[in-house]
Amino acid sequence: MSDIFYVNNNFKNVTLNKHFHEEYTISLVYEGAHFFANEKEKHKIVPGIIQVVNPYEIHTTNNSTWSHLNIMPTVSLVNSIAKDILKKDSLETIHFNSFINDEKASYLFITMFETFESKEINDLAVDNAIFDFLDYILKYHSTIKENQIIEDKKTTKSFSSTIDFIDANIRDLNISLDDLSKNAGLSKFHFSREFKRNFGISPSHFVQIKKVNKVRELLKTDMSLSTIAYESGFSDQSYMIKVFRKYSGYTPSLIKKVSS
User: Which GO terms describe its molecular function (predicted)?
Assistant: First the structure.
């Protein structure tokens, strides 16, 4: 799912003639103003507004200076998530609302973009961030109606084997959403949605906390910090320390001194 294009664009006095894209183009304006027109309406898009251009939608830009964060999810990716929401094997092309003024949508968009830009990026975190954003705007800002959404709720017990799988593979640097969803016998979209509903955090967040807890356990031994990082599934010692501090408020070396 992480093969998605994204860009941070800055335009100055730009005019674009009529054109279309073959994928979805979703942008969050953060500076300036975009004077945009599609076949139905004209708009001045200002900071904080998410703009969506649906596939094959004819649109233009008129003499605009603006900056925006932009992602380009494919039709197949959006359709896959929509099919999972609707529990259908086939469906007509989904269209998003052209303009989204929603604080939660903006928050999810920015979180997703920050995940893309992170130096410690991993596929599980990227996939979760993409899914969280697209799942939300599909449910609340698209042609999908609320009465069409089919909930197939799972309980915490449904994920016991998944937690065992994470524990058994904690040294793996790239536990993937595919790995976890296959273990649970669910589609990756259904798995991600239900996991978060049950545990209150995303699968990637859960795995990271599991790794931190593994560090705590190994700090009771005589292992070096570099060995502990390896055994806990971190790419290196410095990244392990950064993540550990994020959840603990102090460094692993401090707790090692206290324990000894």
Answer: DNA-binding transcription factor activity; sequence-specific DNA binding
